[in-house]
Design a protein that fits this description.
- It is built from 16 helices and 24 strands.
- With 594 residues, it is α+β, with helices and mostly antiparallel strands.
- The protein folds into 3 domains: 169 residues, DNA Polymerase, chain B, domain 1 (DNA Polymerase, Chain A, domain 1, 2-Layer Sandwich), CATH 3.30.342; 195 residues, Ribonuclease H-like superfamily/Ribonuclease H (Nucleotidyltransferase, domain 5, 2-Layer Sandwich), CATH 3.30.420; 179 residues, B family DNA polymerase, palm domain (Palm domain of DNA polymerase).
- Helix 11 packs across helix 15.
């Protein structure tokens, strides 16, 4: 048996016969640094059943076509209970059989039936994408594995022993950025008639190239005969460069769909995946996401909208914000003029197109580490994390933590529960209207991590919320007087506590470090933890959240309002006159008579 180490980039599963095979896509940690696909056929999906009568329930489920039925003791909002764990042969058996199981007379409800198979695998095996894993098994021949395309040039490895996570620094990833230009003399580009006139590529490994049908004396321009050859050359370069990340700007909505449409019209296969597979599209929320197997495609446009507050999100505007430099721009409706005119105008277009791809690489190198670190904390694929809303990130982080602590995950709300929740809102933070006029000697009072600190200190969690309690055993919120047990620590408070302690540790290490690279790395880690911790208080009131409890959200903001008002009164005793307050801090003018 061989042992290999790799950076885990992505995961999916395929079916062979009646078996589901997990595929782990990675970059091997050796001298060759090659792409690798690890295959594991030893994992099976499962759900939990809440029984009315445990013996009768086991008997009824055993009559269905399932692999295993067993009684297990787990926690449900901190209370220990017996559940029935039902193991299936294939992930598709879960949706086929879950309604049958739910309808059995001995079944109260079913749980964890909607956790996708590949995500379940990552959680149960303790694996984190964008970190290293060690695998035991043997190298196998692509021709022997019929779930891999015939075009696959990547090394395949069959898991036969252990798979282990390894703590590691940020991986050095090969990044390739792309940008396309289209000839559209009649307004908005239409892929059924407007051809691609150039594809620009830029990598963090030194590649800078524009593939086009037009000639130029510029050394980065590669001239080919026609549009078909532009696309074929694009595919060749991706296969040769073998990037870990493919990045674009609005590439989910424009570049990749356009390339796919043109390739189909011209009958060109887009074998971009490390398994030889073609470019695909997946539904993510309300949008489609371009998926390249084994190479993580990230659309930076989505990430910029998450992290920057701007009036508009053009590539030029984002670049100005991040680098304080103007970037050349050619309006979309003028591109065909530059193309048709030729000469210097054409060269300007080539430079602009390459600059777009180079700019995307630069923005990616600056902004992706935060999403990369969130991936390593939340433990779901980078492709998914880059497209997740904040509430989803928190939820998947808590699902992983629930597994680690032997907690059964609550179900998502039914459509009627969701409708009922939607109209309800927790009260917001305290806001004091600003005192009009110009002020001098202003100081700012700021609570550090106000809401996360309240969750921890007051033990605010669905599993600690009670309706009756002695005063000395409970924290009672102001206003509506919700009661939370003082101990033991609730599920969510204990997790936020760990996040904040880890963040303090990282910030201490940052202060003590004299290595600039290490400081940068530690800063990204603590910033990711900060985002996660600050997102957690809001999700109690988020209608789709599995751990939703409006009482928790209400209690947190009530304590927040109480603290800020009391602090403002106390500040006045020391000569500080508050002039404006908002949620977790206030501005005050110092009078100096104290």
């Amino acid at each position: 048996m061989e042992t290999k180490r790799m950076v885990l980039l992505d995961i999916d599963y395929v079916t062979r016969g009646e078996k589901a095979i997990i595929r782990l896509f990675g970059r091997e940690k050796n001298d060759a640094n090659e792409s690798i696909i690890v295959l594991d056929d030893g994992f099976q999906p499962y759900i939990y059943v809440v029984p009315r009568d445990i013996e009768e329930c086991q008997e009824q489920i055993e009559e269905l076509n399932v692999v295993k039925v067993e009684k297990v003791k787990m926690k449900d909002l901190a209370k220990e209970k017996y559940f029935i764990k039902v193991t299936f042969n294939h992930p598709q058996d879960v949706p086929k059989l879950r309604d049958k199981i739910r309808d059995l007379s001995s079944v109260k409800e079913i749980r964890e039936h909607d956790i996708p198979f590949y995500r379940r695998y990552l959680i149960d095996k303790g694996l984190f994408p964008m970190a290293e894993v060690e695998v035991e098994g043997k190298t196998t021949n692509p021709l022997d594995i019929n779930e891999i395309s015939n075009n696959c040039q990547t090394k395949l490895f069959k898991l036969q022993g252990e798979i282990r996570p390894i703590s590691s620094d940020f991986p050095n990833l090969n990044i390739l950025s792309l940008d396309i230009e289209v000839y559209n003399p009649k307004g908005m580009p239409k892929s059924e008639k407007d051809p691609i006139i150039m594809i620009s590529l830029s990598s963090n490994q030194g590649l800078q190239k524009v593939i086009s049908t037009a000639r130029s004396s510029l050394d980065f321009v590669e001239t080919v005969k026609n549009e078909s050859e532009i696309i074929e050359r694009f595919v060749e370069i991706i296969q040769k460069e073998d990037p870990d990340l493919l990045i674009g700007y609005n590439s989910d909505n424009f570049d990749f769909p356009y390339i796919k449409d043109r390739a189909e019209l011209l009958n060109i296969p887009l074998n971009l995946g490390t398994d030889g597979s073609q470019l695909k599209f997946m539904k993510k929320g309300f949008a489609n996401a371009a998926l390249v197997k084994g190479r993580v495609h990230v659309d930076l446009y989505l990430i910029m909208r998450r992290y920057l507050q701007l009036d508009r999100y053009t590539l030029e505007r984002v670049y100005l914000e991040l680098f304080d430099q103007e970037k050349q721009d050619i309006p979309g409706d003028e591109i065909h003029c530059y193309w048709s005119e030729g000469g210097e105008k054409l060269d300007t277009l080539f430079k602009y197109s390459l600059d777009d791809a180079v700019t995307v690489t630069e923005i990616g190198e600056k902004m992706l580490p935060l999403t990369l670190e969130l991936t390593r904390i939340v433990g779901q694929p980078f492709f998914d994390v880059a497209r997740m809303a904040t509430g989803q990130l928190v939820e998947w982080y808590l699902i992983r933590k629930a597994y680690e602590q032997g907690e059964i995950v609550p179900n998502k709300p039914s459509s009627s529960q969701y409708s009922n929740r939607r109209g309800k809102r927790a009260s917001g933070g305290y806001v004091k209207d600003p005192v009009k006029g110009l002020h001098e000697n202003i100081v700012y009072f700021d609570f550090r991590s106000l809401y996360p600190s309240i969750i921890i200190s007051k033990n605010v969690s669905p599993d600690t919320l009670v309706t009756e309690c002695d005063d000395e055993k409970c924290h009672i919120s102001p206003e509506k007087r919700y009661m939370f047990l003082k101990g033991p620590a609730g599920f969510v408070p204990s997790i936020i506590g760990n996040i904040l302690r880890e963040r303090v540790r990282l910030k201490t290490m940052m202060k003590e470090s004299s290595d600039e690279e290490e400081k940068k790395f530690l800063n990204v880690q603590q910033e990711a933890l900060k985002r996660l911790a600050n997102s957690m208080y809001g999700v109690y009131g988020y209608s789709r959240f599995r751990w939703y409890r409006l009482e928790c959200a209400d209690a947190i903001t009530a304590w927040g309002r109480d603290y800020i008002k009391k602090t403002m009164v106390k500040a006045e005793d020391f000569g500080f006159k508050p002039v404006y307050a908002d949620t977790d801090g206030f501005y005050a003018v110092y009078h100096g008579d104290h």
